[in-house]
Design brief:
It is built from 9 helices and 12 strands. By secondary structure, the protein is of the alpha+beta class. It has a 5-stranded antiparallel β-sheet, covered by helices on one side. α1 packs antiparallel against α2 and α4 crosses α5.
Length: about 280
């Protein structure tokens, strides 16, 4: 089943967050008045929707429709997931895509699969979700507008994933063709080596380009420098390790190859708005 919506107005974010669920946690049966998008980060969740059980694992997602009765059975071994409550100005349910001549260029239609596995560019969606969480914590000017813009971008990625599966074609890359191969390889390398020392000079040497070229490629395609990208994902990994509560902050600092605990704390606060110690306290609540 697909959710079809015409984006004439920005979607509204009502609530968002991340749930780190311990063994035995459960959500009792309820109904909500808005949509809820759930993306599983780790572990396994058993959702029951109108007496039908659905199992979510890493990178699986589900969009709960307004008014649908649902619950989560007791968690067996711990799990974590993003959740986001939102409202759409208009929508309808359909079984397949309806394409027109300008569908891929000018159309304002979004098709969202009610459930599935996010198979493309998961790191982009997770980065956007973390950005939304940061904006929500800051409570700054135009916060709701910024959250709506980020949500629209997230929904576009989910819609893109649905297009690819429904039509049976690979979704087009969002990278500039001049850099696409290098960017993909660099992202994979960074994601696989967060515990190593990663520098712009070292990475550019690895890919046999100049530091200037490497920085330009990242800025044009990801909107940030290689160092900003590396730091962002090292902090994201640090948050995951902190939430697991198996390592001390100092151990996490050196496991991710930060220079000093002070630098780790300062960078964490710069990106997240709170210190690692404060985040650890939140994870225990």
């Amino acid at each position: 089943m697909l959710i079809k919506t015409e984006i004439e107005q920005l979607p509204i974010v009502n609530m968002l967050g991340i749930s780190n669920c311990h063994r035995g946690w459960q959500l009792y049966s309820r109904r909500i008045e808005d949509f809820e998008l759930i993306l599983l980060l780790q572990g396994e969740c058993h959702f029951v929707l109108e007496n039908k059980e659905t199992v979510l694992r890493e990178n699986d997602y589900f969009i709960l429709l307004p008014g649908v009765e649902h619950s989560i059975l007791p968690i067996k071994d711990g799990a974590s997931f993003y959740y986001l409550h939102f409202s759409l100005a208009n929508y309808e349910l359909c079984e397949k895509l309806t394409l027109n001549n300008d569908f891929f260029s000018e159309s304002k239609q979004l098709y969202l699969a009610v459930s599935g596995t996010l198979e493309q560019e998961q790191w982009v969606v997770k980065a956007l979700w973390e950005k939304a969480l940061q904006e929500n914590l800051r409570q700054g000017q135009n916060r709701r507008l910024l959250l709506s813009a980020i949500l629209l971008e997230i929904l576009c990625f989910f819609s893109k994933d649905a297009y690819s599966k429904q039509i049976g074609i690979a979704a087009k890359t969002t990278y500039s063709s001049a850099y696409s191969s290098m960017i993909r390889d660099a992202i994979f390398y960074i994601q696989s080596n967060l515990g190593k020392e990663l520098t712009t000079n070292g990475m550019s040497s690895l890919f046999k380009v100049t530091p200037h070229y490497f920085i330009r490629a990242f800025k044009e395609n990801l909107g940030m420098t290689p160092l900003q990208y590396i730091n962002y994902w090292k902090i994201a990994k640090a948050k995951s390790l902190i939430s697991m509560n198996e390592m001390s902050l100092q151990e996490i600092c050196y496991a991710l190859h930060f220079e000093t605990p002070h630098y780790f704390s300062r960078l964490f606060r710069k990106i997240e708005g709170i210190t690692p110690s404060e985040y650890k306290k939140i994870c225990k609540i």
